[in-house]
Amino acid sequence: MNPKARPRAILYLRQSVAREESISLELQEDAGRRYAAQAGYDVVAVEADHGISGRTWKRPAVLRVMKMIEDQHADVIILWKWSRLSRARLDWAVAIDKVEAAGGRIESATEQVDVSTSTGRFARGMLAEFAAFESERIGDTWKEAHRRRVEQGIPATGKKRYGYEYDRATGFTPHPVEGPILQECYRKYITGTSFYEITDYLNAGPTKPGEGYTGPKPGIWSATTVRRVMDNPFASGHFISKGEVHQGIHDPLIDEETWEQYQVRRKSRRVSRSSTKSTYPYTGLIFCELCGHGMYAGLFGSGHTLKYRCSGAAQWKLHSGGYVMSSTIEATLLPWLTDLAAEINEATKDRKAPKPHDPTPSLRRALIKVESRLSALTEKLVDGTVPQEVYERMRDQWLGEKKSLEDQLMAARVEARVEPVKLPPDLMEQWGEMPAAVKRELLSRVVARIVVKPGRPRAEVRIVARWEQSTLSDGGSN
After folding, report:
1. Which pLDDT value is given to residue 324?
2. Could you tell me where the DSSP H helices lie in 271-387?
3. Could you tell me if 76 and 70 are in contact, meaning their C-beta atoms sit under 8 angstroms apart?
4. Can you tell me the distance from the alpha carbon of 261 to that of 468, in angstroms, rounded to the nearest whole number?
């Protein structure tokens, strides 16, 4: 720098995210300019980070300021207070080292110390240490505030939740427009509509995704965003904090039964997501009798005929056969449904429709046994009879088994609450006009699976009803 030239100064401003010390950027800039004028500096730039915590160094403006000093485009960094640069001890030390190595200086407009002396550098260090202390104190205060909110059934933050509006005084309340739409999304999914179809419904509807819910294009829903919104238990009156689900005090949009139905459907359809968006109604229901693998739809052969092909035969060459025509399936399925319609509809009047075997008692016994094993394992760890490594391995195994049993119990509760389906007497006439999603939903209520034995001249088709499912093995691919 030319010794006759006035030192070039950059004003660095940062507005804290802590409300009690959120000093405006305008006040900080005014104090910095007055200090520069008194010191005889020329202000060549003003850089500001708005609403960014001083505990992180990944701030665009502070990185630009450091680069200007290192590139010799400025000589002095002026801060409102020392805490504006950083509240982290390591970042402070690195910043001071880089600036001084480049021949620059850092000064404070309101906390002036002479850093050319050892006493001044000690004072600056104390002020930086106090800034770090204040940061930790604020962090502890926020953690305690968040903990209290969670204990009171309130989410830690008031960030946007689709379906709700937020007010600091009243908390989360159902949104008059978004709330009913989110309710309809759950109803649609439970009755067989795919996430892709729900996404189209939302994008064509009266509401678009708000802040934090934008898809790949601004203002447009994506299937991924829809899944994220619906997988969040907030609409059921719960919220997630640190990975755990807590009961909230806000009004739910859907009842517990609807939420459990959604979870059960979500798990069963996650196994083969293609079946939920497939235009073919039997995808996910057809299994090969020869190998137990699922059969997938496609237009096969020279005539591009709709057929279902065995994945075991196609991918793993488990047997030579592997096709069944869609018309062959319907030739067996539709008369079966028609013959069953009158019997089922009559039985539902007296609530005597056949239902699957109730697995609840056996599942509860298995769950009690797993919980007892976990308790005994913990006692052995405390007694020192089981090494930590063995304990963690067995604990994780049994926790996984416990989660599986809990999921099965929830599925059994949902199944027990489902009303028996009523098949229309003119099913044969309506079938061709029904959307694939409606057909899948109807079949899921009465058909466990469609078993096909590929062969010539025609494949053999057998329908397994849901109330016969308990006699089946769990084999086969999904």
Report:
1. 93
2. 274-277, 311-316, 326-349, 360-383
3. no
4. 22
Identity of the amino acid at 296: Y
* pLDDT at residue 478 greater than cutoff 70: no
Model confidence over 305-355: pLDDT tens digits? 899 999 888 888 888 878 999 999 999 999 998 888 767 666 555 545 455
- Least Cα distance to 285 among 231, 237, 333 occurs for 333
pLDDT of the residue at 136: 67
Selection from 440, 438, 367 nearest residue 401 by Cα: 367
Percent of all residues in the chain with a pLDDT value above 70, rounded to a whole number:
83
Looking at residue 459, its pLDDT comes to: 93
pLDDT over 70 at 202, yes or no: yes
Q: Which residues make Cβ contacts (< 8 Å) with residue 275, sequence separation at least 6? A: 269, 283, 284, 440
| Cβ contact 190:265 at 8 Å | yes
C-beta atoms surrounding 147 within 10 Å: 13
Q: Are 77 and 105 in contact (CB under 8 A)?
A: yes
Q: State the greatest distance between any 2 C-alpha atoms of the chain, in Å, as a whole number.
A: 103
Residue appearing with tokens 């056949």: 354
Radius of gyration of the chain (CA): 33
- Does the predicted TM-score (pTM) go above 0.85? no
Cα–Cα distance measured from residue 144 to residue 88, given in angstroms and rounded to the nearest whole number: 21
Residue with tokens 């995808």: 283
- Amino acid residing at 311: S
